[in-house]
C-alpha cells in the first residue's frame, strides 16, 4: 500500500534534458566534435562526472584530472545560465495536478534526483515548498541504479521502502526504484522503461483514480 511518493527531477518534473544537452554540445563543439540528441539519451539519470567521461570517450579525448574538473565546472556554468531563466511555466503538464492531489491528502512527497542543481531548479519553478524531503546529487555516494537516493528519501519521510512509489524517466532510475523494493512508475517510452511496474507517457495520462488505487490496494 503506497503511503509516500518520490519524484525524479530532470525529465519528470521539468524537461531540463534539453539544457543539459545544449551545455554538453557546446563543450563538445569547443573540443572539436559533434554531440547528438541521440547520444544525449545516454546521459539521462547519469551523474555529471560520468556524463563528462562518456562525452570525452565520444570525442576520443583523454584529460588530466585538473582539466577534467575545469570542463565539469565550465559545463555546469553554461547549464546554470539556462536554469537562471526558468520559471513555473516549465513544469511538465499535469505535474502540479498530481503534486496538488498528494499534498491535499497529506501524503508525503520527496525528490530523489542525481542532480546537484535540484534545489535551485525547484526554487525557480516554485515547487520547493511542496516537497517534504529533498535528496539530490549532493547527498548520495552511489549513483542510480543503486537504490541509495531513494532509500534515503524513504528514511527522511519515515516510510518503509515498499510503501513508496517512484516516478522516473531513466532506465537507471527505474532500476534504482526496483532495487529499493519500491513501486516504480516509468514516465516516457514504455519500451525503454519496460522494467517499471507501471508506464505512462507523461502525467496527463495519470488519473487521480489510479493514484487512489495505489494507496488503497495492496500494491
Ligand atoms: C540527472 C540528469 O537528473 O542529473 C542527468 O538526468 C544529469 O542528465 C544528472 O547529468 C546530474 O545533474 P547536475 O545538475 O548535477 O549536473
Ligand atoms: Mg530523470
Automatic annotation (TrEMBL):
Family named by the database record: Belongs to the HAD-like hydrolase superfamily. CbbY/CbbZ/Gph/YieH family.
Protein's name according to its UniProt entry: Beta-phosphoglucomutase
Amino acid at each position: 500500500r503506497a503511503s509516500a511518493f518520490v519524484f525524479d527531477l530532470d525529465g519528470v518534473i521539468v524537461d531540463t534534458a534539453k539544457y543539459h544537452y545544449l551545455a554538453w554540445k557546446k563543450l563538445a563543439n569547443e573540443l572539436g566534435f559533434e554531440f547528438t540528441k541521440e547520444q544525449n539519451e545516454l546521459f539521462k539519470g547519469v551523474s555529471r562526472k560520468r556524463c563528462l567521461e562518456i562525452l570525452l570517450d565520444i570525442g576520443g579525448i583523454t584529460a588530466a584530472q585538473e582539466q577534467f574538473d575545469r570542463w565539469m565546472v565550465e559545463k555546469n556554468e553554461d547549464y546554470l545560465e539556462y536554469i537562471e531563466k526558468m520559471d513555473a511555466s516549465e513544469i511538465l503538464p499535469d505535474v502540479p495536478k498530481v503534486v496538488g492531489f498528494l499534498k491535499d491528502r497529506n501524503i508525503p512527497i520527496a525528490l530523489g534526483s542525481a542532480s546537484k542543481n535540484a534545489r535551485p531548479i525547484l526554487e525557480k519553478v516554485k515547487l520547493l515548498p511542496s516537497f517534504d524531503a529533498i535528496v539530490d546529487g549532493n547527498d548520495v555516494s552511489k549513483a542510480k541504479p543503486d537504490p541509495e537516493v531513494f532509500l534515503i528519501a524513504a528514511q527522511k519521510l519515515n516510510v518503509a521502502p515498499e510503501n513508496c512509489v517512484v516516478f522516473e524517466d531513466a532506465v537507471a532510475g527505474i532500476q534504482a526504484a526496483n532495487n529499493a523494493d519500491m513501486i516504480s512508475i516509468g514516465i516516457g517510452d514504455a519500451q525503454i522503461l519496460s522494467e517499471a511496474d507501471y508506464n505512462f507517457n507523461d502525467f496527463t495520462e495519470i488519473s487521480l483514480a489510479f493514484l487512489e488505487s495505489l494507496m488503497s490496494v495492496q500494491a
